[in-house]
Every structure is written in C-alpha cells, then in structure tokens.
Design brief:
- The complex is a heterodimer of chains A (487) and B (250).
- Chain A has 487 residues and is an alpha+beta fold.
- Chain A has a domain at 175-454: Cytochrome-c3 Hydrogenase, chain B (Orthogonal Bundle).
- Chain A is built from 17 helices and 16 strands.
- The longest helix of chain A is centred in the middle third of the chain and has 29 residues, at 216-244.
- Chain B has 250 residues and is an alpha/beta fold.
- Chain B has a domain at 115-247: Rossmann fold (3-Layer(aba) Sandwich), CATH 3.40.50.
- Chain B contains nine helices and ten strands.
- In chain B, the strands form three sheets. Chain B has a five-stranded parallel beta sheet with strand order 7-6-8-9-10, with helices on both faces. Chain B has a three-stranded antiparallel beta sheet with strand order 2-3-5, with no helix packed on it. A two-stranded antiparallel sheet of chain B has the order 1-4.
- The relative contact order of chain B is 0.18.
- Classes of the chains: A alpha+beta (487), B alpha/beta (250).
- Chains A and B meet through helix 3, helix 4, helix 5, helix 8 and helix 9 of A and helix 1, strand 6, helix 5 and helix 6 of B.
Chain lengths: 487, 250
Amino acid sequence: MTSALVHREATSDIETLEIGAWRAELLARAEAGLRPVTLYGRREGERIVLTAVHQNSGSLCVSRTSVEPARGYHELTTELPALHCFERELHEQFALRIAGHAWLKPIRYEGQDQAAMGSYPFYRVEGKEVHEVAVGPIHAGIIEPGSFRFTCFGEHVLNLEIHLGYQHRGAEARLLERDPRALAPWVETLAGDTSIAHCWAYCAAIENLAGHEIDPEIDLARAVALELERIAMHLAGLSGMSADLGFLPGASTYGRLRTTAINTTMRLCGSRFGRGALRPGGNGIQLDDELATLVRDNVELLRRDIALIDDCFLSARSVRHRLAGVGVVSTETALQLGVVGMAARSSGVEIDARLPARGVHDRYPISSCTEPSGDCWARARLRIAEIDASLAWLARVIAEPHGWKPQRTPLPALAPSQLAIAVVEGWRGEVVHCLETDAEGALVHYKVQDPSLRNWMALALAVRGNDISDFPICNKSFDLSYCGNDL
Amino acid sequence: MTIFRSLRVRLSQGKQFITDVRAAKPTGFRGLPRFAATACAPDCAACVASCPTGAMRLEPLSIDLGRCVFCSECVLACPEAKIEFTTEPRMGGTSREALVVTAAAEAQTQIRAHEAFGKLFKRSLKLRQVSAGGCNGCELELGATANVNFDLQRYGIEWVASPRHADALVLSGTLTRTMKDAVRLAWEAMPEPRFVVAVGACAISGGLYDGARGVERGFLDDVIPALYVPGCPPHPLTFVNAILDLLGVA
C-alpha cells in the first residue's frame, strides 16, 4: 500500500447530482466540517462535468454534477470562499457561467492571447494620494515571472493583486498526449522544486489505476526522498528570507546546508532535484551500506550545524523585529480561504496529508508542526521546526538497514471507467492529482493541483496593511510556485 | 551573546568553496553521457522509443544534449547496455550542433573559447536571468552558482537586477507565449555588446514542452544564443564551466 492519500472510485458509482442538489451537498459538507480539497471540470460533449473532492479525516469523498456552460450555476464562493480559485478556473477553462461571482478574473490565461493579458482588470482604489506600484513580470532576482500590482497610500499597502499566467506552458494538456504510464519526466517539471511530491502523487494514482501494489520498501524510499526535498527547500527558503532581511550568516549558512541536503538526494538518485527518483511501478533510488553511512553522516551534520544557525537566527533581534507581526494570516482567514500546507500550519491550521498515518507514516510516525501566529515569524519558525522533524524522522529510518536498488515493474493497462485521486504532502502543501479513465481504459482527464493555486490569495491578503518594503519577506515566507499555478 | 553564536556558526562553516571548479566532479551526478563502442542490436530502436524528448537518434547513435533531460530512460531501455551517464558536469556548446554526442566524439563536448568574448568579458561579466516557463529547477541552480560553494563572483561574474546593467541574458524555461513581450523588452533594454545564454533543455530546444499549447519560441529564432548549457536542470558546475570556457578563462 502507498503512504500517499489515494481514493479510487468507479465513475459509474459516482452519482451525477442535479446542480441544485450538488450545491446543497457542498454546503452541507462545509457545515459538517469537511474540507474542500479540489473542484475541477471536464468537458463531456456539450456539458461540463464538475467534480468536487472533500476530505473527511483520513478519507476523500467525491460529488459530481453536470452543467451547460451557458447556463452554469450560481457561485458558491461567497458562502465557501475556499472555492474562489476553483470557480475562477472553471470560468476560464470552459467559459462556464458562474452567476454572481465577484472576482472571475483569469487564473493563468489558458488558451488566451498575450493581448488579453495586457488588459488584466486590476482592482482600483480611488483617492487623491493613492498610487499604484507595478512589479514584474520579470523580478530583480533569479526567480520565476509573475506580476504584482500594489495599491499604496504612501508606503502603506492598501491592496495587492497578484496576476499570474506568465509561466503557462500547457502542461495539463501535454499529460494527455503520451502513454499515461510514462509521464514521470513531465510530472517532475510541473513545479520543478517539488518534483518528488508531484511524482509521488502521479505514481500513486497511476499504480492504483493499474491495480499495482508496491513494495513497502519502495514506498519508504519515496518518503525518504520527499523528506529530503522538504528539508532542502525549507533551507532554501530560510536562506532566501535571511537574504531579504539582510541577515547574511543565515543567507550563506542555510544556503550551504541546502547543498548538503540536495547532494544527498543526488547520491541516492543522480539528481539534486530528485529527477528520476520515482517511477510508476518502482524507483530509481539506490541505497547500499556505503550510501547508508553517507546519508547517516549527512543527516548528523545537518542536525548539528542547522541547530547552530537556528540558534543564531531565532535569537537575533534584527530578524525577529523584521518578521514578527508582519504579513499576518489569521487562523480564521486561513480556514476560510482554504489555505493549505505550511502556510496553513503557520496560521494554526492542522492540515497535513501525512497525518492520517498510513504505510510508512504508521511504521515511522512523523510529527506535524503548527505555529499559531500566522505572521512571517511563524512561517520561518515552522520551517525550522519541520526541518527538525524531518531530520529526526530520517535519522530513525536510516538507523535501520535498508537495501534499495533502482527497479521497476512495468504496469499493466489501466482499469476502465475509474477516477483516482492522490494527495501527497509536499513541502509547500498538498499536491493533488486527479486521473480519470474512459470505458476503454484510456486516460481522458488529468487534473493537477499545486498547493500554490490556493495559497497565492493568502499572500495577497497577508500584505494588506503592511509596508510595501516588507513585501519581499512576505513573498519569500510563502515561497509559492508560479509554474505550479500556471501549469 | 550574539557574537559568540555568530562565531560558532562561522566556525561550523569552515571553508565551503570548491577550490578547483574546473576539475570538480560531483559524485553521483548524472552528467555527460557516453556510448560503449559495441554495435547496436539489429533493428533495435529501444532507446529512441524510450526518450521523452526525442533526443536519441540512430545511425549513427547519438544523443542531443539540447533535448536530453538526463532521465536515463535510454540506459534502462538499451538491451546492449551501451549508454552510460558519467559524472562529468562539463558540457555545453556554442552551437546547437556541438551539443550532439556520438560514440565517435571525444568524451567531453567542447566549448570553443571565443576571443571576442574573452576580450570583452573575461574580467567582468554581468548576467541578467529571465525565466519564461522554467519550472524553478534551472532558476534554483543558477541561483546556487552564487552561493558559498560555487562562488561565481570569484571570477568577476555577477548576477544583476536590471537588464540595463547586463552583458548577457541568461534564459531558462521553454519560452511561453505570455512571456513573449517581456523577454523581448528585457533583451532590448540591454546595452550592446550583449549575448544570450540558453540554459536547460527547455530553453535550448523547448525540451519536454516543445510544441505545447502555451509555448512560443519566436524570440530564439531572431536572437541566436551564443552559448548553450544543457541539463534538466544543469548542475551549477555545468553553468560556471560553460561560461568560463566561452570566455577562455583557464
């Protein structure tokens, strides 16, 4: 069994509700405390099939409806703000009428031309001394492109609107053009700094559709790769935050410790980003006695040296002064908006796909961390705590003997008329992949959801009421993916 | 006392920089591929069929590093075990043709040092990075070239915030339609003499997204890169060495 959270259902078993009944069901689920995981559409003839997925403690449940694009339905975002990005996406992808929605702006300019992108309807604030600051799409650093529009009163940010789509490659469509069992290289580049999480979600879903059970050691090796990725990217984030607030020991030391983490991944699979580490039906990960010793030594080095720089970072008044109370997302806002992953946990919301402990997380439990205050300080502290937790977990796993070799079993054909959903807790948050096969067992739909899609709005709200000069710190504290959103 | 905390960190840091960047071989890295001299099985095209980006060719057997994503599917597919990825990070070329590795070619792809580039930029080169459809793999590795391990600045090479200050435009990503105007603006904002470096399979050839719906690579039809740095993503050593090779730095 896989440690990813996987749900599979025959499409014939999923009742297609009338739109009114479907809306009522979504509202009832929210009332019952179920958490929306995704909502997406698929064109079927003249109609659009809408699929909503909720999480109920350790399991997922699906509900469906079918609508005509021109007729559409009345928006749910007012009552369920967590659905805001999904309804925008539905409108953009299918020209689906979503009556009453206040903010049907494009998510990523899918299928539209550049001219439309230039006329993005930014929110305006009127006032004599109100001014706008436009940043991007190209930023000053070595990062991905995206556009930010600040509406300011002096230094004070009244509103930030984030306009993405510059990274839209057409990745989801590409996933339907190839053999569904050979998509790993594409999946690894959906958001290339969280390759392991995306590839694990893909492998878990496709293995499930093919009816293939993987060996627990293969599953464990995947979890090891995932935690190494989490450690490396949290270190990269802390290094970036340190640089942005002018704390140079943090910038250089967290940066070089990240090198140790990604070089460990490289020793296991040949790539610093874990490319090739996971493949459907197996892994490309090797671990013999010699490598196990190296991993143990590296984990030991990381635990020792990270503790020193953490101590320095957390006790520096300049660091705390710049981070504490800046960029706050309250618990209430995080819950309402459906914020996920480390951003949610930094606002005191306990969401972690590793928590319904199955498989390796049952065998080797991992502690999930939360911070209550929701500010940049909380997000920095959370990343520090999660590095510690992942290193402690790795130390426990690697203390026991394991022998891993690159190996894979070719997968049989996919089961017909099935929907498979896989959720993996990447370092940013939950990565969700939804795959559907037709009556012949061909893959007809592949919906990818990076946690960034849901969390960008949280960054926009976090910056409100802050000084514009604190934006880089806020941005880095969320560390969201542009291409994961734009696909 | 903060100062003692800082000193402890500084002590733990030691010396992190790679002393000989030109000779360094990252252990475990999947780098420059090489072919065994044995013959292929008759009518076998397993490697070609396995390649996600069409980088493999037969007769003669070759691999285009401009398309290769170093996934090693071809290694697994080859019944003769002819293909091997070595740990050699030094790869690249000043033309697309120079990126094609065959069994006959030398083990290392050569970047010809260009006298004009050396003369202009050997002592000071400013780079402006623009990502257009990059997945943050290339971007992170390019950022890493400036960290304490690779320390690109030791050669007088620096990343700058504005194209106005830049000598070279370092492009990553497959070039999206939505970034078309921004890439051209950045290029036009750069003072002459200037050149383009294409980094990673995406920028060099479109890579995994060649021909995808959101991709438009027209800019690179007009402006031919002076340097190609292969990888998915390229190792920081691949990038640093490629730049040094172009400039003729020993």
